[in-house]
Amino acid sequence: MTCPICAREADPKYKPFCSRRCADIDLGKWLNGSYAIPAAVTEQEDDNEPLPEMPPKQ
């Protein structure tokens, strides 16, 4: 198996990465939004619907 970041041989300690550095690079991509999991398109509620009235606060 090769590292998905740099294509070097994976280290069992950091599998599937070759090093802590590549693991951290991958984590950074997830945290800054570079990676995204596609979501299924769903029917959304109509934005023009009025919001329900809230009872007055006492």
Write the layout of secondary structure elements.
Blueprint: H1 20-31
Q: Can you characterise this structure?
A:
The protein has 58 residues and is mostly helical. It has 1 helix and no strands. It has one helix at residues 20-31. The longest helix has 12 residues, at 20-31. The N and C termini lie far apart (64 Å). 7% of the residues are buried. The mean pLDDT is 85.
Helix run count = 1
User: What structural category characterises the helix and strand content?
Assistant: mainly alpha
Percentage of residues in helical conformation: 10-25%
Q: Stretches where pLDDT falls below 50 for ≥5 residues?
A: none
Give the overall shape, derived from the CA principal axes: elongated
Give average pLDDT, whole number.
85
How many strand elements?
A: 0
Q: Report Rg.
A: 22 Å
- Strand fraction: under 5%
**What is the straight-line distance between the termini?**
64 Å
Helix-strand pattern, N to C?
A: H
Largest sheet: none
Question: TL;DR?
Answer:
The chain has 58 residues and is an all-alpha fold. It contains one helix and no strands.
